Amino acid sequence: MTTWYQNCMPRIKDVAPYITSLFKELKKEEQVRGIYIWGSYSKNINKPSFRIKDLDVIVRTKFNSLDLISVNNDIIKELCTDSYLEKQGYDPATVKFSKKFISTKKYNIDHWVISEDRKLLHWGGILENREESDNLKEQIEKNILKITGLNRNKINRSSEDIRKNWYELYSSYLNKNFENMPTGWYQVEDMKIKDILKNAIKI
């Protein structure tokens, strides 16, 4: 069986043929207004051999940000009826959408949502300040360089096993910064949606 690490840090040309099919079912959802790829994939779309750590996917929706923020990993794991969810204060459609979107994990997808009230949300803990986030990732890569002797350029040309080990180290360092935060939707304050969509690829 193919597991996530067998596609660890895939090249853009490895991912491109499958992007549309990955979200075919999600695009049919009534509350989905558009699906976009951004981040390192869109920045390096003209570099077919560029390897990505993750695939940033934004779904523009008709859901309210407060309904999204109420959804976390615990409620997604539960087998709940719509009436039960409503009694507990959840919007059943928001829970259903979140569960469906989060279940798409191939190519280590990083899940983002734009709500109806124009808020940007991320699944899982994230630093609210983009500069802090970039600095954290840069520091992590410097720490891994000290341990492995491999920087980002060298890892791009390395074997699958070496990329897997490098990525596991990277994930471990990154996760330590958010280990006390419950898994759910978090609002991101300092990123401008207009700028993000301008640099994103609609699928």
Q: Helical element count?
A: 11
| Cα end-to-end separation | 28 Å
**How would you write the strand order of the largest sheet?**
5-4-3-2-1-6
| Share of β-strand residues | 5-15%
Report the strand count.
6
Largest sheet: 6 strands, mixed
Our Rg estimate from Cα atoms comes to 18 Å
Supply the helix-strand structural class: alpha+beta
Overall pLDDT confidence: 86
Number of domains as seen in the coordinates: 2
**Which overall shape is indicated by the principal axes computed on the Cα atoms?**
globular
Order of helices and strands: HHEHEHHHHEEHHHEHE
State the low-pLDDT regions, or none: 1-6
What is the helical fraction, as a range of percent? Answer: 40-55%
Summarize the topology.
Elements: H1 12-15, H2 19-22, E1 32-38, H3 40-43, E2 55-61, H4 65-69, H5 73-77, H6 82-87, H7 92-102, E3 109-114, E4 120-123, H8 130-148, H9 152-156, H10 160-176, E5 185-188, H11 193-198, E6 201-202
Parallel strand pairs: 2-3
Antiparallel strand pairs: 1-2, 1-6, 3-4, 4-5
Helix pairs in contact: 8-10
Describe the structure.
The protein has 203 residues and is α+β, with helices and mostly antiparallel strands. The protein folds into two domains: 4-126 and 181-202; 129-177. 42% of the residues lie in helices and 15% in strands. The protein contains eleven helices and six strands. It has helices at 12-15, 19-22, 40-43, 65-69, 73-77, 82-87, 92-102, 130-148, 152-156, 160-176, 193-198; strands spanning 32-38, 55-61, 109-114, 120-123, 185-188, 201-202. The protein has a six-stranded mixed sheet with strand order 5-4-3-2-1-6. A hairpin with a 5-residue loop joins strand 3 (109-114) and strand 4. Helix 8 crosses helix 10. It starts with 11 loop residues before the first helix and ends with a strand. The model is unreliable at 1-6 (pLDDT under 50).
